Structure formats: C-alpha cells, structure tokens
Amino acid sequence: MAAPAGAWLVFGFSPEEAAGEPGPGPGPWRLEAGPEGIFRVWPAWSYVVVETGAGLELRSAGLRRRLPGWAEALPSETHLVLRGPAAARAWRREEALRGALHGQPAWSRELPPEPCRPLPLLPGGFATPRPPFFTALPAGVRARRLVLGTEHALALGAAGEVFTWGGGRHGQLGHGTLESEPQPRLVEALAGVPMQAVAAGGWHSASVSEAGDLYMWGWNESGQLALPSKALVEERAQDEDMGAGNTKRMPCREQSAAADAEFISIQAFPALLDLPQDLEVSTVSCGSRHTAVITRKYGQLGHGDNTSSDRARCVEHLVAKGLRAEEVVCGPWTTYVRVLEQ
User: Fold this and answer.
1) Largest CA distance in the chain
2) pLDDT digits (tens, 9 = 90+) for 298-323
3) 10 Å Cβ neighbour count for 198?
4) In terms of CB atoms within 10 Å, which of 54, 80, 149, 293 comes out highest?
5) Could you report the per-residue pLDDT of 185-221, keeping only the tens digit for each?
6) Is the pTM above the cut of 0.90?
7) Pairing label, strands 266-272, 214-219
8) Where are the alpha helices (DSSP H) in the chain?
9) Phi and psi (nearest 5°) for 6?
C-alpha cells in the first residue's frame, strides 16, 4: 500500500541536467505534485516515474507521460519495467519517453492473480530493467524484499536474514572476498541479527537491523559507507591548496590525517556504523555513490550540499525549515525525500 501523499524534495542531479539543459542545481527543489499529491517515486538518471492519485506518470526534462493501468515501475537508462495487476512488461527507455507503450514490449510476463511483493520481486523470481529481465530465485530463498545494484543484488529473507549474489569485485556482497557469487548466498556476518531493511547502491550495500543499527559494506571511493576515504582527504587537501593560492602545501591537519588515518577503499564485511548521538535508523536508501538514512528520533538523513563526505551528517535544510523526513529514495545521483511539516 502506498504511503500517504506528501511534499517531495529533491537533492542532486536533475533530469534537465541529464539532458544537457540548465538545472536547478544541487537542490533542494520541490517535485511538482499537483492536487492529487505524489505517493511514491522510482528515479532513474534521466527521468523519474511517480505515483499520483491519478496513477503512474513518467517525468523527464520538460516531458510528462501518463502510464495508465500500471501499479509499479522499475526504471533504468536502457529499459523501463512496469507491473500491473495481470502482467509485467519492459519497454526500451526511448519508447517509454515517447509514450509508445502500445506496441510489442521488449519483454512480457503474465502474473498469477495473487498479491505481489514490491518490484523487483515477482512470483517465482525477480525482474531486472535490462536483459534477461527475469531471473528465478532458488526455492530456499523466501524473499520479502529484493534490491538491485549495478552488478549485484540483495534479498531480505522472511526471518530477517540477508542474501547477496552477483558481482563482488568491490566487496559489495559482504562475504569477505572480492569474488562473484552466481546464486544467493547468506551473509554469514549478519547471521543471528534480524534485519528489517536492505539497500543496494552502485557497488555498495546496506542493511538496517530490527534494533535500528546500520550496517554498510562494499566500495567506499566517495565515502558512501561513512568510513574514512583517502580519496576525499586528498580532494579536500587539493581544494585547500587551491584556496591558499596554489602553494602545493598540504595543511598540517590533513597531513596528519593522510598519514595516520586507516582509510578504507573496500569494506568486504558488513561494518556496524556509529551514528551521531547513537541515533537509530528506520530506513536506508543507496544511490550510485551515496547513501541516505532516516532516523527514528528525528526523521533526518545524510547531508544536503554538493560536497562528497565520508561522515554521516544531518540535512540542515530540513531542520531549518521545520520539516520531518518520512521517506527517502535514492536515484543514481539524486535523493528524493518525502517530508511533512513538524
């Protein structure tokens, strides 16, 4: 069931910028809702599908297309998968943008008349927004939630266990190696800790326990795991050098950090994060190289500027405006936040 409609704020890369047109900047900007409001969002890089009171709608730079008869979306830059009450189908992105959804789809699968779990889960397996479009799940994996990264997937089992499979070259599977896994494999490091949520980024992963603890693993090149990133320390040092007249001298504080900090490029096992003020997490979402969470106490998440960070920070814009985050959905380079006034 969709969450109540609310205002959605967007941070990051806009569809206009993806099309090479001037955009609103790093944000936030408000997603235009109309009188019926917006219940859910499914972002890709160059477009987003939203659920309004009138049904699904595809939005891109200066473009809106109604998608009547469909209940859920799974978008990518090559194809758009849509699920309705009786079938799931995929069309090429260009056809979806033109509204040409009445011809032969790239893929189609009829669905039995039974309740469906959220996409990408389908009866017997899961959908992907690129060929082969459908993959069967082993009978032993009873998934209640499934999320897709660029090269990997995570499934949340019925008892709160976490399974991962696919590409593992950035440690995103959480098995302690960089090897790929062709079939779902239990993340043993999380065994015995029931999870309530999972998320997959480009090449990193996250899970939230029933107690509200946040676990992160995989690639940390941009600090997306909230663990020390050498690339970001070097980037900050270079920015300070340029701001100091290009003296080519690293500040003492950054020299000490670069020499002494235990930088993490790849975290191959799940790491339990210490959030500020021991905050408990209610939900998590991952983009290509960023992560956003909502905490139970404050309903706040991440940070809201265009600077990379390897520390969890509050979005001060929400605090200043008296807004409470109710839901967060990350696109590849964007963050959509459903907010309510406090």
Assistant:
1) 68
2) 554 444 455 666 677 778 888 888 88
3) 26
4) 80
5) 999 999 999 999 999 999 999 999 999 999 999 999 9
6) no
7) antiparallel
8) 15-18, 93-98, 230-243, 252-260, 316-320
9) -155, 180
